[in-house]
Structure formats: structure tokens, C-alpha cells
């Protein structure tokens, strides 16, 4: 074919039927080739204007051939360049070289679709050697390009959720961090892991699990801005890249929003499922400047959030390395803890507030390790859940609680939380029956507490289990009321004897305008009409206790009466038959203030003093260590690891100073407080420190301000006689 188009006369013969010395049959064959859509021809003059173009191309462009004649060829098409191509080639440059080319990819877009062609062209010259234009042909490669584009998209996106996949997120994060490092910008990374997702797959099947993941992706899209990138890394793990965000207050609020929306029920056909989420957060450049480092540290934060009880978020901090190592040790030691008799039960009294009399005791697992000491259940129970140990631990707790409770005088009951693994076990009713038979404990003295979240999507098997417990005579308790999403219909359909309000629901109930008061009042009335008892858990202050009494809440559990104690202490307290405990706690609950005992630095002018922090709230702190500091003195409180809080002394008495912060502290996700912002590693690098993640410890103030050492002078304040409080000159 190309040999037939070797010169201008041959071109004229092709383009003008009946002209030239080619046969009519050859002309018809060429026209038929054009009309078949397999290829097309084009011709341009020395100025690049179209002299001829096949009808098929004009039709695809939505016009006629006559409308294209005389237009510059390069004005109709865009040169498609490879992603890794660095040369600045354009169609005018290529045509201006007057050289043969082939396989050149061009693109055009109509209102309906994009079109691609591969074109070839040969320069034509007059008899005198002057350039006369191009003669060429083209092939439609639209289908091939679209297929390649789809394949490329599939390689970068998760086919189930439509989110970016692990490869795409890794590539994107590396690109963002490299660009932001040069521009001295920040970027946050969130790692999200779904809680209880495995239970959905196990109980409802993998199709339900896939549908759940699609809904999770859609909910994430609803709360994450378009400037951020969401990806699914695989399984139930998600990742979010958040450019230009380093405000930990804003990130914490977003993390809690994610946790909240993913904790709401999911409709899966005729079933419902309640899961949850844990979130780990790392921020560049504070927590790392390279992609692998930032991902590793966000993973450590996620690991800590899951280990802290799930449904939490955590920011990365350098001490998480130590925490992760300790957690791995706990995981390794936990499996043999029962056999080594390291697990025991402690009991927190449940009080009838009218007479301050103990009517029940809530059993709590305790683990005392010979080397690690006492390990909190908030730490080891999530690990037990991951290792499928909550079932054996829960069964052991029921047996031991029954054995110990039978020795208590009177009719004092024992309450035990049932784990999700026990709830799903067909043999659970047998475990309870044998525990009662072996211990000879009266069934009505055993209270089994079921978390509200377990009841969402409740099956007939679960209903049969509840009915079996009631026939056995065991009391059934709806635990953690106010945290899940079960309907009020569960109170009528399931034979509960008691409702227990969760302490997270009770928090803040005494604040002016709290709507929780009306909710508690309504639930108490409903429970009384159904013959149920109501327990309020987590009562810590006098105003909360007074409110619960006024609302006729029947039972109280909380620190205002007593912490959990061992079995021997319970027996000793019950020697006289009844156990009366008088309430003892603060008159008002102050959620914001936390009692601490922490060494921190306070900086005034060019000196840094070591002091002891006694308490901390969002808006200020109480420190001890400096003598007779005037009210109005400005300090910078150095919490370490780049956390500085500017404040002013508002109260001062002897060696104690109350400091009010200029900017409030923010939640760290696990009940602590952190500064909203930190010293930028870019500022430290500008002052001479290597650019990298913030190491633990404090930094000289002159580095943070990039201003060099300030004029040195004498300490302005005397220190208390505590030898640990020593001023350190900055410089």
C-alpha cells in the first residue's frame, strides 16, 4: 500500500477517481478500504493545511470532509505523549521537520467520546526538491487505548469498592511527600481498621462482607474531602492521605467522625450488622518524612488504638515503639496465663442507693503477670479477641464467679459480662448450666450482661439462647445501653431483667441543658413498667449520684462507692451479712481536669525550669516547683516531643502556679490531651537540626523560633528545695 502512495501523482490518482494511471479497480479497492473503517488517508500542503482526509475521520469528528479542507492538521488533534516522555514534542514541530514518521499517536475529543489514532506520514517534494506537504495514513486505535486505559485503572483501583488500591496509594504517598518536603508542607496519613468485620464474614457470609466493605467505602467518601485520597489496602484495612493538615484537633475530630459513622448499623439484605473502627494517625514531617516511615508509624498508632479497646484513634508518638514491644510480649504470654493461674477476678460493688447497700458485684478479669505486673483488661482483652481467647476466658470467668459467689452471705448477686465469642457459641447455655450445677449457686444470683451491640441483627438462635437462660432461672442484663443501636423493641422482645447505662453515656449528664436526663427518665419509666431494674455505671461524683437518685435509678455502680476488690476483700466486708458503703467522691464531676504527676519544662525568657505538673485540663495546668511567681507571668510549657503551650500565670501561691493556655489542648484519642500543633521539623532544620521525625525530649526554644540564642540573663524565679527541679540555661 505504501509503495502505491510514493509520489504526488500517485496521491492524486488515489484521491481523484478516474484520474492518473491507476486502474479504476485499484481506486475502488482503496475507497472500500477507507469505508471499512480499518484505515484512512490524509494529505496536507507545505503549510500543513488539509488537502484531503477520509470521510470516516470527518464523520467521527462530527463534521463533513469539506469543512476540514484548508484547516491546519495540528489544530484538529492533540499529540498523545507517554507519561515518561521528557521531550517537548508537538505536532507542528514534527510536521516542520519534513521527515518521515510512523506510529504517532494522536487524540481528539468530541462531546460524546475520546478518539485515538496512530498515524504515519511521508514528506512529498516537487521536481525541484521543494517541500510540498505530507501524504499519510492512519489507523483507529480507540478500542485498544480504551482497553489499556481500563486495564491501567484496574491496576490502580480496588475492583470491589472503587477506591485506590495499595499500589496506587503507595505511589501517591511517595509523590506527595517528595513534593511537600521540597515545599515545606505537611501531610497527614490515617490508617483505618474495621472492628468485628470477621464476625460479619463468619456469621453472614462473604457476600455480606463484600457488601459491607462497599458501604464502608461510600461512608468514607461522604466525610472525606475531595482533596484527600482514600484507598483500600486489602481486607478490612483502609488508608487516607490528607494533604496540608497537621492540626491534631482537626484530625482528631475527623477520626471520631469516621469511627462514629462506621459504628452505625449496616443494612445487609435482610440482616443488619454493627461493626466499628480503629484509627491510627501519623503526620509528616513530624512523624516521618519518608513514605515507608510514615506508614510504619501510622500502623503503630493503629495497633495502639486497637490495643486500647478499639473504637479509638491514636496519634503516633515515639513511645509507641515501647508500647508495641510490650503488647507483643503480652500477646505471647496471654495464652498460658490461665494455666499458670495468673488470671483472677475482682468485683466492683453495685449499690442500691436508697440504703447504700451492696446488692450485686460485677466481676472483672484481672491478670497479674510475674514480670509485667498487673495488666489492664483494656490492654489484654483486645489481644485476647484477636487470638480467639475471649471464649475460653469468658467461660472460665463464669465458672470461677459462680464458685466464689456461692460463699457470699445473703442474696447478693454476681454479674458477669458475656463476650461476643460466647454469645455466638452454640454450647454457651451448657457452660452456664454446668457452672451453676458444679458450684450449687442459685441461678437467680447469676446475672449475665450482654452488650447492646450484640443484639443488632439478632438471630433466632440467639433468641432461643435467651429463652433457655430464662428457663434456667438466670438473670439477663442489657449492658452498655446508650452506646449501641438496638431498638427499644429489644426491651420488649428479649426477656431482660435489668438495663445498665454505660458510663460513656452517663458522662456529662449533669451539664446544663443535657438531653441525656430526659432519655434516662424515659428509659427508667419504660423499664419499671416492664418489671426491669436500671443500673447506672460509672458514677463518680456527688452531683451525678444525686441526679440518679432523683430519676429513681435503682442501682449504682461506680468509683463514688468503691473500686473493684478481690474475692477475699469481698468476704471480709460481708462478714456481718450486709455490706453498706457510704458514697465518697467529688461533689461535682469535672471531666476536663485530669490529675497527673508529670515532669515538664516551663520556659521564661531564656531559661527552662523543670517543674512537676499536678493536673491538666484543656485550658490550663497546675505546676509546682517555682517560688512566688507573679500573676500575669508568661510561660511556655514544654511537654516534650515538640509540644509547646504558651500560657499565662493566673493563680500563684508559694510554689504552685495555675497556668492558663493561650490555645486549648485537644484529645489524643485515649483520654489524654496533646497540643494542637508542634514545633515544625522544617523550622528545626532551618536552625541546624537534621530534617526528620521529631525525636522524644525537649528542644531549645531558640531553635523552635529560628531566632538564635536570646540575650542570656539570670533566672527570674527561685526554685523550691526539690533537688529534681533545676533550671537549665538555654543556648
Explain what you see:
- The protein is α+β, with helices and mostly antiparallel strands and 731 residues long.
- It has four domains: 2-149, Beta-Lactamase, CATH 3.30.450.20; 157-318, Reverse transcriptase/Diguanylate cyclase domain (Alpha-Beta Plaits), CATH 3.30.70.270; 336-573, EAL domain (TIM Barrel, Alpha-Beta Barrel), CATH 3.20.20; 594-729, Thrombin, subunit H (Beta Barrel), CATH 2.40.10.
- The protein is 34% helix and 27% strand.
- The chain is built from 24 helices and 34 strands.
- An eight-stranded mixed β-barrel has the order 14-15-17-18-19-20-21-22.
- Helix 12 (320-334) crosses helix 13 (377-386) and helix 14 (390-405) packs parallel to helix 16 (428-439).
- The longest helix is centred in the first third of the chain and has 18 residues, at 166-183.
- It is elongated and about 125 Å long.
Please give a handful of descriptors for the protein shown.
about 725 residues; alpha+beta; Beta-Lactamase; Alpha-Beta Plaits; TIM Barrel; eight-stranded mixed barrel; six-stranded antiparallel beta sheet; about 35% helix; disordered N terminus
- Which shape, going by the Cα principal axes? elongated
Please count the beta strands (DSSP E, at least 2 residues each).
Answer: 34
- What is the count of helical runs? 24
Strand content: 25-35%
State the fourth-level CATH superfamily of the largest domain.
EAL domain
CATH topology of the largest domain: TIM Barrel
> Any idea how many domains?
4
Distance between the termini: 83 Å
What is the makeup of the main sheet?
8 strands, mixed, barrel
Mean pLDDT: 85
User: What topology, given as strand order, has the largest sheet?
Assistant: 14-15-17-18-19-20-21-22
- State the secondary-structure class: alpha+beta
Task: Give the low-pLDDT segments.
Answer: 1-22, 704-712, 723-731
Radius of gyration, Cα only, in angstroms? 37 Å
Using the coordinates above, name the CATH class of the largest domain: Alpha Beta
Amino acid at each position: 500500500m505504501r509503495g502505491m502512495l510514493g509520489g504526488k501523482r500517485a496521491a492524486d490518482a488515489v484521491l481523484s477517481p478516474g484520474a492518473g494511471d491507476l486502474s479504476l479497480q485499484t481506486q475502488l479497492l482503496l475507497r472500500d478500504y477507507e469505508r471499512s473503517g480499518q484505515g484512512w488517508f490524509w494529505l496536507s500542503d507545505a503549510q500543513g493545511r488539509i488537502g484531503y482526509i477520509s470521510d470516516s475521520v470527518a464523520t467521527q469528528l462530527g463534521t463533513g470532509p469539506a469543512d476540514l479542507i484548508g484547516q491546519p492538521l495540528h489544530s484538529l488533534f492533540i499529540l498523545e505523549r507517554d507519561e515518561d516522555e521528557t521531550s517537548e514534542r508537538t505536532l507542528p514541530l514534527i510536521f516542520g521537520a519534513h521527515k518521515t514518521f510512523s506510529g504517532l499517536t494522536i487524540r481528539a475529543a468530541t462531546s460524546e467520546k475520546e478518539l485515538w489514532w496512530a498515524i504515519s506520514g511521508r514528506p512529498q517534494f516537487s521536481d525541484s526538491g521543494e517541500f510540498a506537504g505530507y501524504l499519510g495514513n492512519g489507523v483507529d486505535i480507540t478500542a485498544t487505548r480504551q482497553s489499556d486505559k481500563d486495564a491501567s485503572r484496574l491496576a490502580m483501583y480496588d475492583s470491589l469498592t472503587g477506591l485506590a488500591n495499595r499500589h496506587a496509594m503507595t505511589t501517591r504517598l511517595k509523590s506527595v511527600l517528595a513534593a511537600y518536603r521540597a515545599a515545606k508542607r505537611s501531610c497527614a496519613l490515617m490508617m483505618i481498621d474495621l472492628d468485628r468485620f470477621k464476625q460479619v464474614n463468619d456469621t453472614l457470609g462473604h457476600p455480606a462482607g463484600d457488601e459491607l466493605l462497599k458501604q464502608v467505602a461510600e461512608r468514607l467518601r461522604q466525610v472525606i474531602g475531595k482533596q484527600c485520597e482514600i484507598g483500600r489496602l486489602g481486607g478490612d484495612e483502609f488508608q487516607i492521605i490528607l494533604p496540608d493538615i497537621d492540626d491534631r484537633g482537626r484530625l482528631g475530630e475527623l477520626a471520631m467522625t469516621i469511627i462514629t459513622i462506621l459504628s452505625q448499623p449496616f443494612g445487609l439484605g435482610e440482616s443488619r450488622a454493627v461493626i466499628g473502627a480503629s484509627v491510627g494517625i501519623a503526620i509528616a514531617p513530624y512523624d516521618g518524612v519518608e513514605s515507608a516511615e510514615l506508614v510504619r508509624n501510622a500502623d503503630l498508632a493503629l495497633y495502639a488504638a486497637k490495643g486500647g479497646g478499639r473504637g479509638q484513634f491514636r496519634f503516633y508518638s515515639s513511645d509507641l515503639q515501647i508500647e508495641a514491644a510490650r503488647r507483643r510480649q503480652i500477646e505471647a504470654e496471654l495464652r498460658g496465663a490461665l494455666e499458670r493461674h495468673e488470671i483472677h477476678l475482682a468485683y466492683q460493688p453495685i449499690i442500691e442507693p436508697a440504703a447504700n447497700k451492696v446488692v450485686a458485684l460485677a466481676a472483672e478479669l484481672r491478670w497479674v503477670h510475674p514480670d509485667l505486673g498487673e495488666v489492664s483488661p483494656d490492654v489484654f482483652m483486645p489481644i485476647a479477641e484477636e487470638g480467639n481467647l475471649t471464649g475460653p476466658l469468658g467461660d472460665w470467668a463464669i465458672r470461677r464467679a459462680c464458685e466464689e459467689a456461692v460463699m457470699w452471705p445473703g442474696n447478693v448477686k454476681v454479674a458477669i459480662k458475656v463476650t461476643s465469642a460466647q454469645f455466638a457459641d452454640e454450647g454457651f447455655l451448657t457452660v452456664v448450666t454446668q457452672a451453676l450445677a458444679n458450684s450449687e449457686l442459685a441461678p437467680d444470683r447469676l446475672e449475665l450482661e450482654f452488650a447492646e451491640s450484640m443484639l443488632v441483627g439478632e438471630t433466632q438462635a440467639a433468641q432461643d439462647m435467651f429463652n433457655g437462660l430464662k428457663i434456667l432461672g438466670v438473670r439477663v442484663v442489657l449492658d452498655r445501653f446508650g452506646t449501641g443501636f438496638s431498638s427499644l423493641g429489644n426491651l420488649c422482645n428479649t426477656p431482660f431483667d435489668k438495663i445498665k447505662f454505660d458510663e460513656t453515656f452517663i458522662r456529662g449528664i449533669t451539664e446544663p441543658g443535657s438531653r441525656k436526663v430526659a432519655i434516662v427518665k424515659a428509659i427508667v419509666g419504660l423499664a419499671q413498667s416492664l418489671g426491669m431494674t436500671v443500673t447506672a455505671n460509672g458514677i463518680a461524683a456527688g452531683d451525678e449520684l444525686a441526679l440518679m437518685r432523683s430519676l429513681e435509678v435503682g442501682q449504682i455502680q461506680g468509683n463514688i462507692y468503691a473500686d473493684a476488690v478481690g474475692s477475699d476483700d469481698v468476704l471480709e466486708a460481708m462478714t456481718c451479712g450486709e455490706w453498706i458503703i457510704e458514697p465518697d467522691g467529688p461533689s461535682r464531676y469535672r471531666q476536663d481536669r485530669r490529675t497527673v504527676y508529670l515532669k515538664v519544662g516551663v520556659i521564661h525568657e531564656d531559661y527552662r525550669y523543670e517543674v512537676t505538673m499536678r493536673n491538666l485540663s484543656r485550658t490550663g495546668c497546675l505546676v509546682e516547683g517555682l517560688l512566688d511567681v507573679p500573676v500575669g507571668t508568661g510561660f511556655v510549657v514544654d511537654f516534650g516531643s515538640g509540644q509547646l503551650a504558651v500560657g499565662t500565670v493566673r493563680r500563684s501561691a508559694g510554689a504552685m502556679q495555675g497556668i492558663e493556655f493561650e490555645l486549648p489542648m485537644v484529645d489524643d484519642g485515649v483520654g489524654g490531651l496533646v497540643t494542637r500543633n508542634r514545633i515544625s521539623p522544617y523550622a528545626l532544620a532551618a536552625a541546624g537540626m537534621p530534617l526528620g521525625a521529631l525525636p522524644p525530649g525537649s528542644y531549645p526554644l531558640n531553635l523552635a523560633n529560628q531566632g538564635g540564642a536570646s540575650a542570656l540573663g539570670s533566672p527570674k524565679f527561685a526554685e523550691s528545695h526539690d533537688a529534681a527541679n533545676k533550671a537549665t540555661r538555654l543556648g
